[in-house]
Amino acid sequence: MNNKKVLIFGLLALLIVEMFIWGTLHQKKMYPTRGETLSSLVEKSLNKALVNFGITEENIVKKYWEEKTSQGKEKWIQIHEEFVIPQSISLNEILKDIDKKTRQTGGKILSYNFLEGGRKLQITLGKENIATHSLVISKDLLPKIAIIIDDMGYGREIEKEILKLSYPLTISILPRQKDSLKTAETAHNSGFEVLMHQPLESKNADYNTIQGLITEEMSKEEIKSILKQNLKTIPYAKGINNHEGSKGMENEETVSELLDILKKENMFFINSLTTPDSTAKKIAIAKGLEYLERDIFLDNKKDEKYISEQIDELISQALSNGQAIGIAHPSQATLNALKKALPEIETEGIKIVPVSQLLEK
Hints:
The chain is of the alpha/beta class. The protein has helices at about 1-25, 35-50, 90-105, 155-160, 180-190, 220-230, 250-265, 280-285, 305-320, 330-345; strands spanning about 60-70, 75-85, 110-115, 120-125, 130-140, 145-150, 170-175, 195-200, 235-245, 270, 290-295, 295, 325-330, 350. The strands form 2 sheets. Strands 6, 7, 8, 9, 10, 11, 12, 13 and 14 form a 9-stranded parallel sheet that branches. Strands 1-2-5-4-3 form a 5-stranded mixed sheet, with helices on one face.
């Protein structure tokens, strides 16, 4: 009896051993392939580096996977990711940290390039010369605001105070006024961008007595002559915006001749939008002239509270549209509001720029 038991147990043990050997020889491999292992190792070190800078999945704008095959038929997964990050984060520091952390897991940066003036970083990561990750990290573009100060050139004390502001405002100067030339020189030497504030005919006849005015009755030769004489009184002018013009800006012939001259002079035009029926936009587009429009008049009321509210609206438009143009005029209320608002605009993450920079889209 005991011998039978020993024999049975022996047979069972032998069967178990045989089953184990068969299972070992025939089981499906469940561990990751070499390529998957490489990708996951680099992925972990990369994520650690990005998290250090507050970069999460919310910053990803594109992500996809691609199967790669080497000449030896070895397969692996390459991950492509694109991120958009705030301006405050340094791409150089990100690059250094990614390099450090991937090296800790045996990976490395295979190549990198800074593009678009240093605003974009391309990185290829991998291990053992196999590229497992392709990254594009771009800086978010800051919204921009341009503020044009019109009606300069009279030599008033308030104008001198405005020219003491340490922000890149755009100074638009009326031609042929007492201090047009001096204001242009002072503004330019102080680092401000200069425009000529060209008077155009208004529907209100009381406004049509200003010097350097262009009217719709004028011939092409007269318009050209007046414009060139006006420009001589305002050196450094890069472009023009219209003063008044509720009538003149609706006249296609007048506007067309004006813009033709600007094109030849390599100047741009900013439409002050003094009439909703302005013909300037379609004409400028047809001529291929650099052109922008005013978004908000900041000081239709010479009231500091009102002006501050208009500046808030300008900020809102810049945040929504990426840029905005405000027009203001020399007054104490405007100066007070600007002194308070300009630092706050930059705190909001908005860049104050000369108006010509908004043409660089």
